[in-house]
Amino acid sequence: MRALVIDDSRTMRRIVRATLAAFGYEVHEAEHGQAALDLLEGGLEVDLACVDWNMPVLDGLQFVTRVRANPLWRAVTLVMVTTESEHSQIVRALAAGAHEYVIKPFTADALREKLELLGLVPEPVAAGGVA
Amino acid sequence: MTLAADTFAYVADLVRQRSAISLEPGKEYLVESRLAPLARERGMDVDAYVRALRAQPRETELMGVVEALTTNETSWFRDQTPFMALSQHVVPALRAHLGRLDSLRVWSAACSTGQEPYSIAMVLEGTLDAGTALSITATDLSEQVLARARAGTYTQLEINRGLPAPMLVRHFQRAGAHWQVSDPLRKVVTFRRHNLLDPAPAGGPFDVVFLRNVLIYFDLAVKRAVLDRVLRAMRPGGYLVLGAAETTLGVHDGFERVEAGRACLHRAIGRPLTATLPTETARRLAGTIPHPLSAADRTRAAVPTFRGVAP
């Protein structure tokens, strides 16, 4: 499984990368939506894109809209990973074609559960928790 | 730091008396990690905290210790498969069995902060016909978690845990920094304080009972007694949903195993044991759970508020 992490914060990209790598993903990174589109247009095939909302050049919502408009990328599952947490924003992201929505800050368990909902956890991972 | 043997023995004994949960040797790490925050609040390590508690046992403090060891975090649609089975198997099967489904009564036992009963409500809202009256009775031993469940208000971190985004926007509104369950969903869920060793709560007889990740903490006699209570509360032919690691096999023969997709359900087919074995069950119960407590405490004792993760 291959994932693309799109976030203008290097720290956040590192966190999401580490989480996805622990689930067995091969992870690629882009610092904004346009850089991510360039990678996809260059032939990078991914199963999953984790997309921040607020980014320079091309924001997450625009990226989601552009990906959904291209039938070649229909198989890409889009998960917003963002601090934007208004009800209306989540509705907009889903309407634009995002499959799931994770609000920052989040735990590894939260991301894993969202990917499980989407059938996108390739390797069994021990449940987190106290014990 | 290694926990002193007498600290562990005291805490294990207290938890067994109050919740019927067995903390076997080897669970010292659990006692230490769960009690560390309580001890830290008082500027002590866990051994010193427990020594102080033994010297001067206060009821609220004792309950705090028991809750710390029996409460786990929870998430929405935990394990997913039971909820899929509910909509894809249970409802169609009940509808076929009864001809029509005028009402559906569900019991979510050991419901903690409410994620399970609200998840059930969300699934059924999309599954049942308008003509089916849905009622969900959700119970827990702890008033503290029930108050949170009733309020139906969750933090951002809680909302992130397993709740599909389309369900979030459909059934929740923002309330400041939190999220509030919608009124239509709250209306179908009634929260009650209940001890699993007491007779079933009002709201039955139940067509479906969720009792997940509770039995694993009990010994055989308590498991059998709890399942017997549950069976008595169920409509014949109803479905019991247990945790993935739990079974009625070898514990109570009043249920038959039913495969439903990736889930395993337990259909109520038999008669309660106590109809034929009242003395034996009563003796087992009495022998299993010592009750040196007052009558008021006794209603608090037994059965945990935890969900999910095994200690």
Verbal overview:
The complex is a heterodimer of chains A (131) and B (311). Chain A is α/β, with parallel strands linked by helices. Helices cover 40% and strands 18% of the residues of chain A. In chain A, helix 4 links the parallel strand 4 (77-82) and strand 5. In chain A, helix 2 runs parallel beside helix 3. The longest helix of chain A is centred in the N-terminal third of the chain and has 13 residues, at 10-22. In chain A, 40% of the residues are buried. With 311 residues, chain B is α/β, with parallel strands linked by helices. Chain B folds into two domains: 5-70, Chemotaxis receptor methyltransferase CheR, N-terminal domain (Chemotaxis Receptor Methyltransferase Cher, domain 1); 81-301, 3-Layer(aba) Sandwich (Rossmann fold), CATH 3.40.50.150. Chain B has 13 helices and ten strands. In chain B, the strands form two sheets. Chain B has a seven-stranded mixed beta sheet. A three-stranded antiparallel beta sheet of chain B has the order 3-5-4. In chain B, helix 6 (115-125) links the parallel strand 1 and strand 2 (133-140). The longest helix of chain B is centred in the N-terminal third of the chain and has 18 residues, at 81-98. The two termini of chain B are 19 Å apart. The interface between A and B is medium-sized, with 26 and 26 residues.
Secondary structure blueprint with pairings:
The complex is a heterodimer of chains A (131) and B (311).
Chain A: E1 2-6, H1 10-22, E2 26-30, H2 33-41, E3 48-51, H3 60-69, E4 77-82, H4 87-96, E5 100-103, H5 108-117
Parallel strand pairs in A: 1-2, 1-3, 3-4, 4-5
Helix pairs in contact in A: 2-3
Chain B: H1 5-19, H2 28-41, H3 46-55, H4 59-70, H5 81-98, E1 103-109, H6 115-125, E2 133-140, H7 143-151, E3 153-154, H8 156-159, H9 165-171, E4 172-175, E5 178-181, H10 183-188, E6 189-193, E7 206-211, H11 220-233, E8 234-242, E9 255-260, E10 263-268, H12 278-288, H13 295-300
Parallel strand pairs in B: 1-2, 1-7, 2-6, 7-8
Antiparallel strand pairs in B: 3-5, 4-5, 8-10, 9-10
Helix pairs in contact in B: 1-4, 2-3, 2-4, 5-6
